[in-house]
Amino acid sequence: MTLGERIANLRTKNNLSQQELAELLSVTRQTVSKWESGSTVPGLDNIIRISDLFSVSTEYLLKGVPDVEAAKETEEDAKPVFRDQHKTKLNSRTTSEQSTKRKLIPLIPIIAIGV
Question: Where are the domains of the chain?
């Protein structure tokens, strides 16, 4: 199974559409589609977010190495692992990243004027 197939499998097991997953990760639906089809791969930041969101290891996502807990279940019997608190965690990360970007934007004109 490829990385894209694992992402698609986790997404569908958790009853999420590509659009819903995209919104949780602050990417476009097309980006999720490209990951799942294998035409592109997510960056490290999104690998970590996906692993947090679905409570799986990055090693599982990248290599297919089962988590210790997940190894007890077969892939067909695995239960959805999506947690509502991950929505909050992802949203707070996004908000934090956006506030950092907002803080940096006003500094750019000052630096340019000082040159």
Answer: 3-114
**Model confidence, pTM:** 0.61
Q: What is the largest CA-CA distance in the chain?
A: 62
CATH 1.10.260.40 assigned to 3-114: yes
Asked if 10 and 32 count as a contact pair (C-beta separation under 8 A), the reply is no
Would you state the structure tokens that stand for residue 106, as one six-digit string? Answer: 């006003």
One digit per residue, the tens of pLDDT, for the chain of length 115 reads: 999 999 999 999 999 999 999 999 999 999 999 999 999 999 999 999 999 999 999 999 999 888 665 555 445 554 555 555 555 556 555 555 554 444 444 444 444 454 4
